[in-house]
Amino acid sequence: MANAWFESVAEAQRQAKKRLPSSVYSALLAGSEKGVSYADNTNAFSELGLAPHVAGLHAERDLATTFMGQPIAFPVVTSPTGVQAVHPDGELAIARATAARGTAMGLGSFGSKALEDVVALNPATFFQMYWMGTRDSMVTRIEQARSAGAKGLILTLDWSFTYGRDWGSPVIPEKVNAKTMVQFAPQVLRRPRWLMTYARSGGIPDLTTPNLADSAGVAPTFFGAYYEWMQTPPATWEDLAWLRQQWDGPFMLKGVCRIDDARRTVDAGFSALSVSNHGGNNIDSTPAPIRVLPSIVEAVGGQVEVVMDGGIRRGSDVVKALALGARSVLIGRAYLWALAANGQAGVENVLDLLRNGIDSTLYGLGHSSIRTLSPEDVVMPSGFTRTLGVPLAST
Length: 395
Ligand SMILES: Cc1cc2nc3c(=O)[nH]c(=O)nc-3n(C[C@H](O)[C@H](O)[C@H](O)COP(=O)(O)O)c2cc1C
Hints:
Helices cover 42% and strands 11% of the residues.
């Protein structure tokens, strides 16, 4: 039955595939080059075992924690993504769903809805930036985030402009207009329900980026913004320390995999970091974040809030990440597939699946709280972890 509750992220993915035009589905799947990192992100979780108890279990479990200073009901936050055209409500549906389930969300710079509209629906919203444009334009963006009410910032740096995927890259138009509608008609007409969702909302997908509008309020197209990003000279650690000083609240650096970068993230003054390989979209063959998490927690866990993202598909994955030292996790595709499958209700569905999965895993492991999880809860095969980079002394 269409739009029914789904019982796994895998089912949300199947429904998204059936519902979306092939280019939109392919953009959601993403992954770079051969997909080695994309595959490792999920496969690595399957290599980790869990060791359940049978007695002395707890009738009630406490899943609550905080994310960058905001209380959240369970340790899962929706990661910022820059995907338009998945659902007409886009990030507004995600904001309603995350607020309804008591958690926080990240809004991508390349997202399709204005930050203030998202914050109005979920005050626990974090705005994601890239190192793009001039220092002045970055300061303007930070001021806009402050006045829109963002609770903190996320700077994403793990993107290397790789191209060439073995399973082909989706063709995405610069603008959706009459000409591109004709060009995309064959694949769109095969997905009438997707088209109807947009028709009912009174429009066609808008490929502009409202949160990157210039001082005159003109928002660039997705590709216009992408071009500006590509042209921006890469950041140095001094640049990052400068950027951090422009915001006086919580500030996360997303995309760290090496222990030397983790050390420098702390030295640059960031309050949080996400161990990530951009969901397998950075240079291919970057190891799964869950493999490098323990070394980063060991290096800087006492000084900065460490979260991780990449490959989370079920509650037990979240428990494994927490047992290895993450404070919480971010999810990407799991909620994007759910959004495509069933809008706000789909995102709520996936958040419920993860929360229930965390709860039942905690139950089986004999914990009354996520706070008591430790590496002893995880059965780790030898050679599982990776340590990237060299240890650096704190400055
Ligand atoms: C289609 C897609 C678009 C993404 N866009 C962004 C983005 O705009 N900004 C960002 O910081 N991360 C972006 N990411 C990365 C996610 O925030 C997150 O790191 C990743 O999806 C986690 O892996 P998972 O999908 O396996 O959960 C994107 C990921 C995907 C799959």
